[in-house]
């Protein structure tokens, strides 16, 4: 019986683990001279269960020209306030003639490139621009994609990976990545930095190379090496890109081995900037918790603590302690525990709870377990792409004991 069970596992294992991904084909035309764009987004969706409608969220400033699909009856596009993003988005709802399990849906839209995502000769289509239609609550679902970008001659397009094809005016990228992370940065010129045989590449749009960029490359390389030793033991970073569009807005890390740092004065000699870099690179592993729920602590709490771990390992224990003290002061202001955080009403405490309480709980777990047991747990969590607190607690119990799990539940409830 046991042998039969094992045989079944061997035969079925690959089938069970091979999940079908939705397919996405995007055709993006960027017109930097008048700061507009046009996009055709085509989703090959499998719904699991037959359904009579499908909804997408999109940046409300874009104009939806057309929605179409083989079984479409009608569609609406109405603005709504998204409590998590604290922004009004466009909710596109397609209703089908009859329930469908699979559907190829095409959305055509365009408009002005938002001001925060462009400069004179640069256009940034990245995760923080909401430039792609997303299925609500499935923004980070992996999709098998092809992204074709058209630009005027004289522009180059950089993404999270190398183009499959590139010739004057047309760049084609493909891969498996979260829908929200499909990336195209178009500029007249990119400066490339890479150490010989280095894992990290830096792409700086337009501006002249600066000494700070070389330091960024050096520090990012050291961070990737450290994170691979601690977090990525089972799933290491083999290639990593840092995009510098110079749009001066924010910094964010992608699951798809890439970070976007928009600050033009970013300087890793400052501990705060080095911490941002170590945090963002660690998002290569920390991004599977649903972003608009308390499970986001599995992304931001873990990334915050990963950044701190690097500061400490790099010898800057003063900044490490100072940051932890800041987190403690911030967490003390939040009257809600991590396990009781409700994104519907507690968004005012998002950072103190999701980032700071999350990181502090990990710091305490680290102190309880010691370095080696904690790092084993961290790398197992990363490799398992843990997406829920319950799954993390199960992993904690498997790697330690029931008492530690119970202790952590109590810790996350405070
Ligand atoms: Zn983060």
UniProtKB/TrEMBL annotation:
Pfam families: Peptidase_M1. Keywords: Signal. Residues 1-20 form the signal peptide. SUPFAM superfamilies: Metalloproteases ('zincins'), catalytic domain (SSF55486). Residues 275-379 form the Peptidase M1 membrane alanine aminopeptidase domain. The keyword Aminoacyl-tRNA synthetase does not apply. GO terms for molecular function: metallopeptidase activity; zinc ion binding. The keyword Manganese does not apply. This is Peptidase M1 membrane alanine aminopeptidase domain-containing protein. It comes from Hymenobacter chitinivorans DSM 11115. The lineage of its organism: Bacteria, Pseudomonadati, Bacteroidota, Cytophagia, Cytophagales.
